[in-house]
Amino acid sequence: MNSWIHPGLVISIGGLLIPFIPWKKVKQAYFLLLPLAGLAILVATSAGVFGTIPAWPDSLYKYNVPFLQYTLDIVRINKLSMLFAYVYVVAAFCMNIYALRVKNDWEHVVAMIYVGSALGAVFSGDFFTLFFCLEIMSLAPFFLLLFRGTKKSAGAAVRYVLWHHFSGVCILAGVLLHSQQTGSIEFTTMPWGWGGEYLGSNLILLGFVINAATTPFHSWLSDTYSEATPSGSIYMTAYTTKTAIFCLIMTFSGVPLLMWMGAIQSVFALFLAVLENDGRRLCSYHIISQIGYMVAGVGMGTDMGINGAASHALCHIIYNALLYMGAGCALVVVGTAKFNETGGLYKYMPISFWLYMIGGFSISGFPLFNGFISKAMTIEAAELIHNRGVYLLLEGATVGTFLHTGLKLPWNIWLQGRDEPRPEIRAKLKDSALNTPVHMLVGMGVLAFLCIFLGVYPWILYDMLPYPVEYVPFTVTRIFSITQMFIFAFLGFWFLRKLLGGHLGYVIDTDWLVRMPGMKLIQFCNGSLLKFGSFLDRSVVKSSAFAVSTLRNPSIEMRLTPTAVGLGVFVTLILFVIFLLARIGV
Amino acid sequence: MNKLRVYPKKLFWRLYFIVLVVSLILDFLWLYLHVFHYHFSFQYIPQFFAIFGLLGCMLLILIAKAMGIILVVDEDYYQKKSGKSN
């Protein structure tokens, strides 16, 4: 039964038509309808219209195309890919509402191609299709960054592409090695170890780990996401890293290395977040930190670990888009999300503050918000394998997450203990409590509703998870311990809140280790190497000019000056040697 | 104009302290009544999560601030470092 319509294809090809619709209202409606069309296909697929989806880990295959000596499984539908696909289209719908008024149609086009290729990646059943989709995914954000139009964003765009093409090359090289060894390109569980025979696996792992922004390869994320256009960055938060998590679940579940990388990453990013001055960069560090939970869950490899990683990926897309939208509101309305410039905005943007707080509570994992039902699952998985280290790191990251997204960011942007914003910011605000454009609030509102809905009624999510869920989220122990932890984290924040204020500065990240040598190389090329090159160039031109002038007008040089005689002897000798060498060579 | 409201400060602080005290009492009470089911022995220390939350939060800020002495640089750090090459 080959009658499935690929939602990724519908969304990305449908997206291409956006600039050619002349009527504004129709265009906006069409833009909103695209993800809904994708959603309709997914609902039909779930209902079994295109064949029943077997229980995890079995899959339903469609569109098997012969390619070289392999067969491409362009579409593979299983419970996990359906879970990711659902949240991709639902999130895309909310993001489209938020981005509705963006004037540049091509931003919409690129965003839709991005969403479509992400869907293609989660539905791909072989590594070549996956690689193809990942490559498109690595190009789309390049344009979202360029459309911002600043010099910084152009630089970030180039760095983004460099990182992702490096990871792409790693994946391709790994796939080629793997297929040569095993003769299979199936996108499924990979053998993993340290020896040379696992080189292919390890290259693929490296590629996925870079895409998932796992420490120490996380810096591309905070570097680039904060430079994109306000609405473009929202799309970027959701797709690339979560697709990488999907790939990790499919291929490397149960790799202990990942468990530790994830746990360390979840805390490490928080240290850098303390120092951060830009709201969107702070949120970026929180994406990295939250991905740590997912990577750790994948690394544990237990049923609950995988369930935790998958459900957290879903919840994370929803609340993180909400957080980024909240910080983006400040950026759109007052032109900055830097803590040393904002503060006191509450009076003028209270609705966006409260909607943001719903996202903040969700990411922290407050009971009755969606972070609680997924994050606690991963932490519980760490408890069940009795790993104290991973447990303490993940629990500590929970405190830090609440400190930053629940307290530091809203405090610095909306409150700072001020009743009024700074005068230069005040001048940009209307005398109204509704400075944020309404469509942005609607987009945030839908996401906020989903945060609370999933938090109160998680079973709709639990039914979609690959493994059957035996986990009971709402126990006295868990609710009480996490609530008490937050109450006291707030106290700690209040004591030290002065240290968390805005200050000008840029935080150096691990990418320093790559960017500095790279910069030095470019400087060397531009400086010393270029000088040497031009010296070489000049001397060749000079000597050839001399030779030409001598041959054309010998009378001038015919005078038997010592130089002329010496040169004549020298040239004759060289010619003679060349002649001899040529003879010997023959 | 000033119909615009500032955030509800007083209400917040009152609620906060009530919740804080209640949580302290509940922890002792429920620990005594064996309500909790933890996985590690250290989680049974009285007020473990309160201490963990408070200390974790403060240590995170203080250590990060110490790291910041080295890590926080000028806003145009990379632009300046790259000099005229860009």
Question: Could you explain the architecture of this structure?
Answer:
The complex is a heterodimer of chains A (586) and B (86). Chain A is globular, with a radius of gyration of 29 Å. Chain A contains 22 helices and three strands. Chain A folds into four domains: 1-180 and 192-250, no CATH class; 253-505, no CATH class; 511-547; 553-586. The N and C termini of chain A lie far apart (69 Å). Chain A is mainly alpha-helical and 586 residues long. The mean pLDDT of chain B is 84. Chain B has two domains: 8-39; 47-86. Chain B is an all-alpha fold and 86 residues long. At the A-B interface, helix 10, helix 15, helix 19, strand 3 and helix 20 of A face helix 1, helix 2, strand 1 and helix 3 of B. Strand 3 (506-507) of chain A pairs antiparallel with strand 1 (72-73) of chain B, so a sheet runs across the interface.
Protein structure class of chain B: mainly alpha
- The coarse silhouette of chain A is globular
Query: What spatial form of chain B do the alpha-carbon principal axes imply?
Result: flat
Query: What sequence of helices (H) and strands (E) makes up the elements of chain A?
Result: HHEEHHHHHHHHHHHHHHHHHEHHH
Helix content of chain B: 55-70%
Give the H and E element order of chain B. Answer: HHEH
Enumerate how many helices of chain B there are, as a single number. Answer: 3
Question: Radius of gyration of chain A over alpha carbons?
Answer: 29 Å
User: What is the arithmetic mean of pLDDT of chain A?
Assistant: 90
Q: What is the number of strand segments of chain B? A: 1
User: Based on the structure, what is the oligomeric state of the protein chains?
Assistant: heterodimer
Q: How many domains in all of chain A?
A: 4
The amount of helix of chain A comes to: over 70%
